[in-house]
Amino acid sequence: MTAAGNHQASRHNGRRLERAGIRDVAAAAGVSITTVSDALNGKGRLPDATRRHVREVADRLGYRPSAAARTLRTGRSGLIGLTVTTYGEEPFTFTEFAYFAEMARAATSAALARGYALVILPASSRHDVWSNVALDGTVVIDPSDHDPVVTDLVRQGVPVVSDGRPAGNLPVHAWVDNDHEAAVLDILDHLAAAGARRIGLLTGTSTDTYTRLSTTAYLDWCERVGQEPVYEAYPAHDPCAGAVAADRLLARPDRPDAVYGLFDPNGTDLLAAARRYGLRVPDDLLLVCCSESSVYATTEPPITTLSLKPGRIGTAVVQLLIDAIEGADSGAPVQQVMPTDLIVRTSSQRRPPRTTVSPPRGSGD
Fold it and tell me: I need a labelling partner for 40 at 20 to 30 A (CA). Which of 52, 103, 225, 259 fits?
């Protein structure tokens, strides 16, 4: 029987299962304790094969780092924060939105895999409230221009990684984002190819990079193709305001024949507004919205959505943050751009006109 097998057997002989320690992992993997520590913490200059081998052995033995021992050894709490500061003190339960929920789920899993726990911080809390929790670092989603929370955290020596490209010189250690300009241009070209001649936009009033870059891309596209912009902006944290803006957009005298909505509820809001005005989707109005919600696959008709891949982003921001906490970052801000995915459904595909074929006339007609 192997050393690992002997260890596993011995763990089941007593009434209580003993927790595998770092020495057990080192013995089973045939490496030093230092190598195990470096492999599990993403440190040192180890071959990828060695890191994988050590992690596989650690998983097999059920090894988990001791949080108490790490705190004594490193002075770190093992806690990292996650919050949205875009809307400041406005009430905004961001975990109710599919993007943020998926991003937080992936971030939580990535943190646990590295021996950290994720703390969800209320969007409306200022940093003096957060000081009650000893955080090793914080992920900030879509920070606004000149975000004071980010600046204060960095000034106090707390590493910050942003989900969203920061504007100006916001001092984050790293950021992960999508190419929003390219994504918007692809959507507009997709709608134009489906026959749209006047494409509208539902956008927000906030100053976060996602909103700003997406809106700018739309305005630039309109100028390039010679279309007058047709858009409505509203506070994105307020779902009631989104429904009002959708109605306002479709009530305009220059009503669009296609609309792209930047935010999660825009698809259902636009679909409801279209029904109120007697517009058929997709015959009279083409629709696309940015959302991770599976509900759009079952609406009538199903609505085309843009996915920003929040699961991949959540994993990436946590990995970058923990690297910064543990001193494994390169020093210069790290920038990662994630791909998007346009999931094309009925709402953005205009049906071809029906043609009626008459039966051949009989010889006696």
Answer: 103
Q: Tokens standing for 233?
A: 């902006």
Q: Of how many residues is the chain composed? A: 365
Q: Kindly report the number of other CB atoms within 10 A of residue 206's CB atom.
A: 20
Q: Does the bond joining 282 to the residue before it have cis omega, within 30 degrees of 0?
A: yes
Provide CB contacts within 8 A for 6, sequence distance 6+. none
Q: What is the pTM of this model?
A: 0.74
Residues in a beta bridge with 82: 120, 139
User: In order along the chain (365 residues), what is the average pLDDT of each group of 10 residues?
Assistant: 42 50 89 85 80 89 67 70 72 71 93 89 61 84 80 85 85 93 97 97 90 96 96 89 96 97 95 97 97 96 97 95 80 84 95 54 50
Cβ 227 vs Cβ 200: under 8 Å: no
| Contact yes or no for 170/143 (Cβ under 8 A) | yes
Helices (H), the chain: 3-11, 22-29, 33-41, 48-61, 67-74, 98-113, 127-130, 148-155, 180-193, 209-225, 239-250, 266-276, 310-325
Question: Which residues lie below 8 Å from residue 208, measured CB to CB, with a gap of 6+?
Answer: 86, 142, 143, 144, 145, 164
Q: Select from 242, 346, 342, 349 the least CA-distant residue to 292.
A: 342
Q: What gap in Å lies between CA 305 and CA 314, rounded to an integer?
A: 20
**CA–CA gap between residue 139 and residue 241 (Å, rounded):** 28
